[in-house]
């Protein structure tokens, strides 16, 4: 087997880290709406499968302020910038 770390696996790992940070922050601020963290993860999973990201966008903007969901999306090509931004929320 190869011990090489390819760029794609590294990027996906970073993306998972960012998603987990975002889910944790959403859960911390919305405990009255969600019984468990996994409920928010399931929202993201459903959005990915159906292509309907509107519920996620509404949750993010309601939690952190209007335009934040768009800002996260705009940083999609800058993984480190996206991680820094999500961590700062």
Please describe the structure with a list of short key phrases separated by commas or semicolons.
mainly alpha, single chain, 89 residues, globular
Q: Can you put this structure into words, describing what you see?
A:
By secondary structure, this protein is mainly alpha-helical. It has one domain. Helix content is 73%, strand content 0%. Helix 1 (7-29) runs parallel beside helix 5. The protein starts with 6 loop residues before the first helix and ends with a helix. The mean pLDDT is 92.
Secondary structure topology:
Elements: H1 7-29, H2 37-50, H3 54-64, H4 68-74, H5 79-88
The rough form would be described as globular
Percent of residues in beta strands: under 5%
Structural class based on helices, strands and sheet pairing: mainly alpha
How is the biggest beta sheet arranged?
none
Radius of gyration: 14 Å
Work out the helicity level: over 70%
N-C termini distance: 40 Å
Q: Which regions contain 5 or more consecutive residues with pLDDT less than 50? A: none
**What integer is the average pLDDT?**
92
Order of SSEs: HHHHH
Number of helical segments with 4 or more residues: 5
Number of strands: 0
Into how many domains do the coordinates divide? 1
